[in-house]
Each structure stands twice: as structure tokens, then as C-alpha cells.
């Protein structure tokens, strides 16, 4: 979010590629049958067009150093699987929320809780999220499901929301009034770009949807909890942690 390294790609490769492949190689030598890798939807790209959610079959198009390093790790794991026979399962989640959530999601919760008026009342994007509980449940399924071997999956809550809708539902979970100003989305995007916050504009105003049809049909999986329940659990932890 606030990259300070002079060479971010080298730093990300050190952990996401070299670290991952080192661990996977040791796992293969130790006789581990299956290696489950938590990648990122950033391997697919940063945004989707209306009605065109990301899918596993899409050609990877990572745009930032983090996404590039995750993609390289995936490629390395696939080669290792071919060389050693160890099964590899790759999972690409979108934004994960839940207990101890950080970054923009946490900031939005803090703003809502404090009653700060936010200019996000007229955003009509569509974004996929995944609650921590759903992600963990999906990982557990991938550990031993026969059909998961050497496959790549996308995962989400199975329900996409706009930023405006998400904030309203988050406010309900926090039991606070919603103070969202209906600033036109285009005006917001221009404002963010003027202050050099293009990435933030994309996260708040752009769309990023994932298609989880493969995950549901191949693995006979469905999200364990709803978005509203995920937000309720996130808000519950947030409020409890404030003492």
C-alpha cells in the first residue's frame, strides 16, 4: 500500500517466489502429498469490465510487483509439481476481511464508527470479497478433495457489492448511522487522480469481480457464511478490540 523499497519486485520475489519455492521443495523432499498455495487475484489483474468477472482460465495479467511475484510463484510451483509428483493447489482470493483486518477496510470501519461523513454515497461498482471464515473453509476443502489436485481456483463470498452498499452494510454491522455523501463517482475519480491516489481510486471506485463457478462445481463447495454475517463478525471483533 505504501511501498518504500527501492526495488519492490526484488523484495517481493525474495519472499513470494524464492521463499515459496524453497518451502515447496522441502515439502516435496519430505514426501508431502499436496501443497496448497494462497496466491492473489492480482495475478488475473486489477479490474474487471461489467459482466466480465475474472476466471481461472483467463490469461494472467498482473500489473504490480506483488501480483507479478505471485504469478511467478504459481509458475514455479506448477513446474515443481511436474518434476516431483507433489500435487499443487493454487487459490487466488480477492480482498479478505474478518478478524484483524487491516488497510483500507479497517480505515473505513474506523471512519464509520467515528461518524465521519464520507463522499462515497454514489459509487456503482461491483467488487468481490471473501470473508476469512469462507477462505479458511475453502482451504480446508482443498487440502484433501481429490478433484483439487493441480488445479487453480478463485474464491469469494459469492455475492458482489458496490463500495456504497458495502459501507451501508458495514454501518449496520457496527450499529452506527450511515453518513455517505452522494458525490458523483467520476468527480471522485478525478479528485483521487489529482492528488496522485490512482490506486485508491481503483480500489474504491473500480470493479473487480471473480467467478467462483469452478470452485462450487468441481469441489461441491459453497460459501460458509454470507457477506452480512462476515461483516457482523468483523464488526464484533473490531468493537471488542476497542475495549
From TrEMBL:
Signal peptide: none annotated. Residues 11-150 form the NAD-dependent epimerase/dehydratase domain. This is NAD-dependent epimerase/dehydratase. The lineage of its organism: Bacteria, Pseudomonadati, Pseudomonadota, Betaproteobacteria, Nitrosomonadales.
Amino acid at each position: 500500500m505504501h511501498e518504500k523499497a527501492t526495488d519492490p519486485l526484488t523484495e517481493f520475489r525474495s519472499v513470494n517466489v524464492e521463499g515459496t519455492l524453497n518451502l515447496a521443495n522441502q515439502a516435496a523432499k519430505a514426501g508431502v502429498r499436496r501443497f496448497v498455495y494462497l496466491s492473489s487475484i492480482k495475478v488475473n489483474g486489477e479490474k474487471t469490465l461489467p459482466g466480465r468477472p475474472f476466471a481461472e482460465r483467463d490469461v494472467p495479467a498482473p500489473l504490480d510487483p506483488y501480483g507479478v511475484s505471485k504469478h511467478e510463484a504459481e509458475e514455479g510451483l506448477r513446474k515443481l509439481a511436474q518434476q516431483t509428483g507433489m500435487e499443487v493447489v493454487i487459490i487466488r482470493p480477492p480482498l479478505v476481511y474478518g478478524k484483524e483486518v487491516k488497510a483500507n477496510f479497517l480505515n473505513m470501519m474506523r471512519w464509520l464508527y467515528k461518524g465521519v461523513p464520507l463522499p462515497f454515497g454514489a459509487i456503482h461498482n461491483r467488487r468481490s470479497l471473501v470473508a476469512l471464515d469462507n477462505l479458511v473453509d475453502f482451504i480446508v476443502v482443498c487440502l484433501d478433495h481429490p478433484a483439487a489436485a493441480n488445479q487453480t481456483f478463485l474464491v469469494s463470498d459469492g455475492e458482489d457489492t458496490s463500495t456504497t452498499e458495502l459501507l451501508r452494510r458495514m454501518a449496520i454491522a457496527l450499529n452506527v448511522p450511515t453518513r455517505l455523501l452522494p458525490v458523483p463517482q467520476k468527480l471522485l475519480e478525478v479528485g483521487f487522480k489529482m492528488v496522485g491516489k490512482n490506486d485508491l481510486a481503483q480500489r474504491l471506485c473500480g470493479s473487480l469481480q471473480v467467478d467462483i463457478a469452478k470452485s462450487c462445481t468441481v469441489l461441491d463447495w459453497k460459501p460458509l457464511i454470507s457477506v452480512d454475517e462476515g461483516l457482523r463478525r468483523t464488526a464484533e471483533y473490531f468493537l471488542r478490540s476497542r475495549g
